[in-house]
Amino acid sequence: MKLNQKAVIWLSATILILGVMGCGKIFPSSGYTVQRVSDGDTLVATDNQNQKITVRFACIDAPEVPHSRRERESRKSIARNQFKWGKKAQKRVQELVKKGGDRVILNIVDSDRYGRKVAEVRLKNGTFIQEVLVREGLAQVYRRYLNQCPSKDIIQKAEAEAKKQRRGVWRDNKYVKSWEFRRIKLR
């Protein structure tokens, strides 16, 4: 009898240890692991099979960040202002992602011409990242593609609130919408 009890205890302990050590492989966690936040509306993540995916946030357009040396060194006030807001938006996404344990849930709605997946991005606790950015005035509704946005009512309501409360870019009279800024050539 004592031999059977010891065997059961050892077997149970072994199963428990192996289960805990390998449970990520047996039961992979949901969502994607964020590798990098590229800017205020783009991130790079990996899925459970370690496949890399570049994600463009659906529904919104955030201010630009400088990508080249020329942009970083630009003395044009329009560029400096755009990049100031772009860095704030990027930092906010980084904070949100960190708060979510570097994991996000994607609702992929499309792919863009650059091969990025266009998606609504949420944290595991349900926080809708695009809504937070728009509500804080760190991004704007991207009306050109709003028809591809399942949560467009939430996003539009958040923007109306940010405008009314003059949050973020809505209080900056010098701010140029990011889609208009991209048309301007920095010289």
Shape: globular
- End-to-end Cα distance: 86 Å
CATH architecture of the largest domain: Beta Barrel
What is the CATH top level name of the largest domain?
Answer: Mainly Beta
What do we call the CATH topology of the largest domain?
OB fold (Dihydrolipoamide Acetyltransferase, E2P)
Please write the string of helix (H) and strand (E) elements.
HEEEEHHEEHEHH
- What is the C-alpha radius of gyration, as a whole number of Å? 22 Å
**Strand arrangement, major sheet:** 1-2-3-6-5
Secondary-structure-derived class: alpha+beta
Main pleated-sheet profile: 5 strands, mixed, barrel
The count of helical stretches stands at: 6
Helix content estimate: 40-55%
Taken together, the total number of domains comes to: 2
Please indicate the percent range of residues in DSSP E strands (runs of 2 or more): 15-25%
> Low-confidence segments, ≥5 residues, pLDDT <50?
16-28
